[in-house]
Amino acid sequence: MSGDLPAKLNRRIADKTDDLVALTCDLIRFPTVNPPGDAYAPCAEYIGRRLASRGFEVSYMRGEGTPGDSDRYPRTNVVARREGGRPGPTVHFNGHIDVVEAGQGWSVAPFEAIVRDGRVFGRGACDMKGGIAAAIIAMEALIEERSDIPGTIEISGTVDEESGGFGGVAYLAEKGLFSRPRVDHVIIPEPLNKDRICLGHRGVWWAEIETHGRIAHGSMPFLGQCAVRGMGAVIEAFERELFPLLDQKRTSMPVVPEGARRSTLNINAIHGGQTDDFTGLPSPNVPDSCRMTIDRRFLIEEHLDDVKAEVRSILDELVAARPDFRYSLKDIMEVLPTMTDADAPVVQSVSDAVKTVLGREPDLVISPGTYDQKHIARIGHLDDCIAYGPGILDLAHTPDEWVGIDDMREAATVMAIATAGLLGID
User: Is the pLDDT of residue 278 over 80?
Assistant: First the structure.
């Protein structure tokens, strides 16, 4: 890369700051809330029109048959591709367009995209529409500076990352869009902070535990078997045996924040007895079913079979200790931990760009939760993949979510310089 290209890209992106902010605001104003999957198609089409006007070939791919897909809520993804005039590798920027619900506690309207004090506020500003906007601006600036680039640039806006990514990146990966020889390097602009490069994530096992009882009249509970009490015994055993065990497990993976460098389990939901979707008073019944969803995050040093066995052994102990205790255990989702090698080309190129733009070495980190890299590694078998983008991870999913304008501009400059390096532009 010639010595003046980074400076030229820096100036060009600085000149496009207003456009960067406007693009971020436009994306926030699409209320792409998942679930159920609102406004996916209009948001994808907006991205597609913009990139088509910049010389990209644009296609839309619906994740038909994936969880949540319907004619009312189609899982619409956009993929834009611009091939250069000379052979070379392909660099792909992937961002998810879906956001979580706004929730309560906002001081600004969550989908109006308020610009104030050097920040853009709104649901999805940080996670991750600011990152998508930064990637688009970065690639536009690079193309404007070097119209005869070698290789290929791809940008995708995909859906359902917040609910597992099966209608988005997983679906596209199964179609071969995240595998060699089509793609060589992938950058996902998730909000891991502009001075960090995320190499991967911990593993996850989602499961449903159901305790089974026997229905009876609530005035004579001794004639039945209360499934909720059975689940209470499960929770008590977890508190006594499982949580202390998990606290002792530590990893060499550079997971952030510090508390996530151990194994964790979250009780995501419990449902037992009668539902509350009725009017009037409940009837007096002993509940014969109670279901609990667990979210177990595990480390690269752990084996998934052992993770599952820890839970099942506790349940089996309860079968032996409690008369009439019965349970079933159902897998919901499982993803192995992933960690890109620190010497991988995409890591080295982004590291060099961070040093050029920010003047310091980036931190190499691991995400506490999974993101769409899991599908690129698992289905696409593509290891040269990282997450790098603007935004503070702790702000994701919170009220008054925001992304800093300077952070987006600097991250966009890093992306442009890193892509130039990966494509061999001099």
Answer: no
